[in-house]
Amino acid sequence: MNEPLIEVTDLTKYFPVRRGLWGRVTQFVRAVDRVSFKIYPRETLGLVGESGCGKTTVGRSILRLIEPNGGSVIFKGEELLRLPAQQLRKLRAKLQMVFQDPYSALNPRMVVLDLIGEGLEEHKLVKDQAAKRDRVAELLEQVGLSSQLLYRYPHEFSGGQRQRIAIARAIALRPELLVCDEAVSALDVSVQAQIINLLIELRQKLKMAYLFISHDLAVVQHISQRIAVMYLGQIVEYAPSGELFAAPRHPYTEALLSAVPVPDPDLRKERIVLRGEISNTGIPETACRFVFRCPKAMEICRKADPPLVLVNPEHGVKCFLISGSRSGDGS
Q1: Contact predicate 54/27, CB 8 Å
Q2: Which residue in 68, 72, 49, 43 sits closest to 58, CA to CA?
Q3: DSSP secondary structure letters along 130-155
Q4: Given the DSSP bridges, would you call strands 209-214 and 177-181 parallel, antiparallel or unpaired?
Q5: Separation CA 268–CA 180 (nearest Å)
Q6: CA distances to 16, 234, 273, 278, 289 from 282, in Å
Q7: Digit-coded pLDDT (tens) for 261-317
Q8: In 3D, which of 136, 143, 146 has the Cα closest to residue 198?
Q9: pLDDT bucket at 59, cuts 50 / 70 / 90
Q10: Strand order in the sheet with 24-39
Q11: How many other C-beta atoms are found inside a 10 Å radius of the C-beta of residue 89?
């Protein structure tokens, strides 16, 4: 493979839990705990897991919408976590995000022309109002909307149309990496398919890379070349999309895939039911994060955090049940 577009190493974000009259910090929630992965130019990396596993925090930390506690994020040779605010602001044109809720992501007091055109003006990509209007009209048509909608407000659109506007706003600055945070989960199923196909088309046309965050494995399989599975702030398995679905190796991945509906009524598969809730509470830092819910847990899982082992050069698994060649780094 060529050089990665973005390389994330040991990304960490802990949130303090405060209790008592004086708000004393009593513990920390390990939302993102030493996460590492790479995204290559023009590819889509799917990041999946249950709600609360830290997926959104990873996406926001990479873009520094929230400040991580540690780690490294290198984008085209630039260390994003150490960039001063002024330099980061200039680089943000190349790193954009599509948020989960199309209803709250758009300012209700702004018309479409200003919603999409604001970034163009901020980064001086248009010279006057006429150029801004022409560029926004072009972007609307790129995402499947009429250029006649420039002066409408968000409340005049459906959820799918709002998400198209949000996508148009994100691609306006010609980004090289687009973080899609549950970009279709708030939409009807029929609209989801349209938006997913639009994202695939735009990635190919504009030569972007995606970090596609979702809890829906079927959607992630459709759009992603590679998939990373998260559990309680850690990546527990990563592999090419086809290989992960054909031969999952981590018990958590196996459980997730067993819950994906199969369209063939004659094909039945055994459902792996996980007991308990996803929670950091009571799990020692030295233990496997999945130990209390894992149907295959061993004594060593309670005493040590398993290393990420390479099954092959593109498939890594964080589990003591796996024997592989060497430790992996999420590449």
Answers
A1: no
A2: 68
A3: HHHHHHHHHHHHHTT--GGGTT--GG
A4: parallel
A5: 32
A6: 16, 17, 21, 11, 10
A7: 766 666 666 777 777 667 766 677 788 989 888 888 899 998 899 999 999 999 999
A8: 143
A9: very high
A10: 24-39, 6-19, 70-75, 78-79
A11: 12
- Give the C-alpha distances (Å, rounded to integers) separating 322 from 124, 302, 315, 318: 52, 16, 11, 8
Residue 44 scores a pLDDT above 80: yes
Confidence of residue 30 (pLDDT cuts 50, 70, 90): confident
Closest of 57, 88, 52 to residue 71, by C-alpha: 57
- pLDDT tens-place string over residues 204-236: 999 999 999 998 888 899 999 999 999 999 999
Kindly report the average pLDDT of the chain as a whole number. 89
Angle, helices 189-206/159-171, rounded to nearest 10 degrees? 10
- C-alpha distances in Å from residue 99, one per residue of 60, 135, 272: 10, 22, 31
The Cα 301–Cα 292 span in angstroms is 9
In the chain, the N- to C-terminal Cα span, in Å, equals: 10
Q: How far apart are CA 331 and CA 328, in angstroms?
A: 7
**What sign results for the dihedral spanned by CA atoms 281, 286, 292, 293?**
positive
Give the amino acid at 87: Q
Task: Select from 177, 157, 146 the least CA-distant residue to 78.
Answer: 177
pTM for this structure?
A: 0.90
User: For residue 203, what are its two tokens?
Assistant: 């990635």
